[in-house]
Amino acid sequence: MEDVRVYGDVHGLPQKDFEEIEMELPFTKIVYKDTVLNVDYEGHYIDIDDFLDELVKRLPASGWAKVDFIDHVDWQLTRHEIIDGKLTSRIVNVDAVLEPTKNEAGQR
């Protein structure tokens, strides 16, 4: 099992701003299309604080982001959200997030 999993969506990030930060992004999967950035990473611990700080500076007022950081070692999920130019981070019960979907795997 990997140490962490990080995934999230950023809505409203201008193309110019994405291009300026693209090479610094710590994620293994990065998809950017139509001002929406999707990020995903699974592996050893990474620091995403600089990434979140850049988003706060670069997102327009109408933009928003939600990035989940799952620590598999401590079994803890931290949800980072940017709304109205403000970053909030809170601990979320991992089981409450993952439990409702565990029996849906493979179903249509």
TrEMBL record:
| Tree of life domain | Bacteria
Give the originating organism: Maridesulfovibrio hydrothermalis AM13 = DSM 14728
* Protein name as catalogued: Uncharacterized protein
